[in-house]
Amino acid sequence: MGGNAWRVLRPLLSRLGQAGLVALLVGCIGFALMHALPGDQAFRLAAERYGPDIVDARAAAAMRAELGLDRPLALQLLEWLGRVVRLDLGRSLVTGEPVIQELRVQLGYTALLAGMALPLSALIGLPLGIAAGLWRGRWPDHAVLSLAVLLRAVPAYALGLALMVLLSVRLRWLPPGGFEGWAELVLPSLTLALGLAAVSSRVARESVAAVAASPVLAFARWKGLSERDAVRRHGLRNAAIPVLAVLGLQLIGLVEGILIVETLFGWPGIGHALVHAIFARDVPLVQGTALIMGLGVVLLNAAVDLACLLIDPRRGRQAA
Amino acid sequence: MRRRRLPALAAACLAPALRPVAAQAATGTGAGAVDERVLRIVAPIEIGGLDPARSGFIFTRMGVVETLLAADAEGRPVPALAERWSVDAAGLEWRFTLRPGLRFHDGSAVTPGAAVASLRRALADATALARAPVATLDVAGRDVVIRLARPFSILPAVLANYGSGILAPASYDAAGHVQAVIGTGPYRVLSITAPMRLEVERFDLWWGPRPEISRAIYLVAGQGEARAAMAESGQADLVFGLHPATMARLRRNPALEVRAVAIPRSRILKLNLASPFFDSLAERQALDLAIDRQGIATALLRNPSLAATQLLPPMTGDWHLADLPPAERDLPRARALLASAGWTPGPDGILRDRQGRRFRVVLTTYSTWPELPAIATALQAQFREIGVDVDVSIGNTSDIPRLHRDVTLELGLMSRNYALVPDPLGTILTDFAPQGSDWGAMHWTDPQLAAALARLEGATAPEERRALTQRASAILHEQRPVIPIAWSELAVAIGRRVGHVAIDPFETSYRLQDMRWREP
Amino acid sequence: MSGLAFGRRVAALPCARLAGAGLLLLLLGFGLVGPWLIEADPARQDLMASLAPPGARFLLGADHLGRSMLARLAHAVRLSFLLSGLTVAAAGLLGTALGLLAAWEGGWLDRGLSLLSDTVLALPGLLLVLLVIAFAPGQILPLAGGIALALWVEFFRVTRAQARSLLARPHVEAARLLGFGRAYILGHLILPELAPILFTLAGFGIGGVILTVATLSFISIGLKPPTAELGGMTSEMLPYLAEAPFQALLPSLFVALAVLACHLLAGGRPR
Question: Which of A294, B142, B318, B496 sits a CA distance of 20 to 30 A from B330?
Fold first, then answer.
């Protein structure tokens, strides 16, 4: 029993260590870079807070005094690290709101987007991939693969633009911007999902093809199960493992996709916030968003590790 | 709603589930029949915070925060929270009498003391009011009394600036930060999701006539194409910040009305007059003659009449010089002027002076206004034709004031709003002050202009003001401390649902309270 | 990401490699010879010819400032390939060298480098690039450096894993025991074995960098005007999407073609 628990705990602990390193790295890089950046921070902040018409040296001086930007850098960094440990990410230099509060709102929107995009990509990618795997080497396989290759070559922003032009400007089915209802969610999540489906269809195809050719399935067929039942009972479960493993990698792609899609569609999530915060030199918000994104990836990877272990307990034994 | 197709309709039913919790806490206005219609305004400018000194313009535009005085369509002061005002003979003591029975959005009474407290905060921050020569701020009965150190004729206009907005004492937390925007206007805040969304509802205790529109949302969409498409899809009732190219397309849409209003804003080139490249008038004139304003206005702004022959556009009244000849592009004359200033073409076609220095300058601009990078790229090519090598650097809005302070700015392309205070004098006074200014002249002083402006500050007689204003404009035109490129218009797409829309050229208010639904 | 697994699949497409090579050759020819053949200056404007449709004067039309799309595209394609080649070369050299070092030395160096690579991998690449290029906006070298900083990890991980198993093979161990120099072993026994897989990685890397640069330019964090860059051209032409869809979409098409060529060529290698 103890061994079993350890098998589950071990990869999780190593992920935890990774999380700590990510936090440290993000914090330090963010900090070092933001302070070395060209463009006086106080001026940038003033531009965001006061608006483009009124930012001037007086506004910048007011910002500098209010935020204590004159203190030694090492002191500011130590302070930040100390607060991170207590889960206090400070206040946004621009809006003055606590970073954690802003992140909560943004994370909610991003979670909505990702939560919609992932099932959507599975809905698009998995059936195509499974079909390709079952008819491997024949036309459905080639068609799905060609589609995936093409989708991967198109930049995400161009895909989003094309969808925007087609679905909202020409056909008027969907609103092109805003973030108030489910309809507004469709375009960005579809853009994201199409990019992801290119990857997941391939993984699904690969796994199904491998399993279909394996003795397990041949045995099942010999047992007298129909082709459909054989795939469903034995094929899918075995195929799920590599799919899950690649899901981890895919999720990193998801985070990148979110940056672009949110910026393109003005979706007020964490990617949009990060790009904005970089422009505005809002150090606490940059650190906060980067931290959450980095930790999010680690967490998702850990979840994937765990899911693989649960589906196939043999893996844990091999690893140990 | 009518125009939406099925998926959007389904979404409308599900939409409340998505709203932030704050919006759910909203209470009705207590009116009898509930009007479900919500007016939607889409604009590119984000909500940078709650403080009226900073992102206050959003709150005054949405009718949440009011000022003591407001401005009419010509920029003249009109009563707002103050029902009347007076000034003593010396022009030093101003009295503003508050309307009786005014209420803040939390129900508390608006006292002169609360108004003075808000104005004191404005004085301490980087606002327009802080530039006025205010000596003391006091309460006298129902009056707010402002004593000045010297006569300052445009005080009413400065008080109409959003930075001088009046908030309830309960708006501030113990540390003095604004924690909630509790104003006095026709609309009060329902929810804010900074920086993207602000929802307001009608405030029934407002002093003016009851507005018809009961709820409105201010929504930020950074992408110009997304904004245009939101107008086309009927998702937004008012869309601001339209790109000139999309305006033409939207005009062909029968479901939309596109209105373009001339506003006192100019795209100008700021020059460092201490640099060897722009220290002589001949050099500045040569640059001026090399600019193809007509081409820029036609191709990039889609409106040839925006080509700026002088700093301030016709709608600024006395600030505009009526009988100036149109500015024609004249490359031979430009080259001759540069030759007279000692610049001769080198082997690569770039000018060199007698010390062999190349005429290479950095033009700094920013992309907050999307047309600026395009204009900068056009200027780069046009200046190249007279042998001036321009390196374009696109950065943040704050780069121009920062480089001004560093004294490293060479050329800056910017969009300057002369209506921050509804009288252009408010902005001109700071921009062309003798010591120079972040958004105005750099290393340039003109004693005659300084004298004219100083007299304008105190002058009250219309005839005298007119003469002084024209004099100041003429000096700015002759000396070219900044080179005007193009004037601006405020373009708005108005949806079919809404009527009685009045566009304020000074952008102080959207005048939501005057709008009506087309169908009852 | 996961270019290798993807590459194995692309190989299944008939004539993928040939098609990729052909496409790449065309694009490279356009990018390398084009700027030299086409006389038009990519920065030369004619505001009166703003958005001119394709015709005799402008073969592929003109952009909003009346510049020749043909000339701009040729320069942009060249820039894309140069920039991505440079970036991948830097990342590949760094990643391979560190991978070999980690595999050879083992011990704390190996652990340290692996930890670093794991950490970098956990960060979205774009995030890292965004942070780094904020240093010097609008300049080419920081842009390449920033992307390389995220890209070396892939080379490092693959090289390290492969080199470790190669170093454990009997003939390599024998060579080490016989006292052959480190340079000889790496140069003659390890690298030739690694070459095919590094080639595939580089191919996908170049495709990826072209995408990244275009994306960054699209969100206006790219290069400064009048540089012609494929993503930047799209964002410049965005307001004119309805009026001149051809000119507005053309740069994106070139991005897609370039990436496609790289993927087909790299993934289509017979094993």
Answer: B318
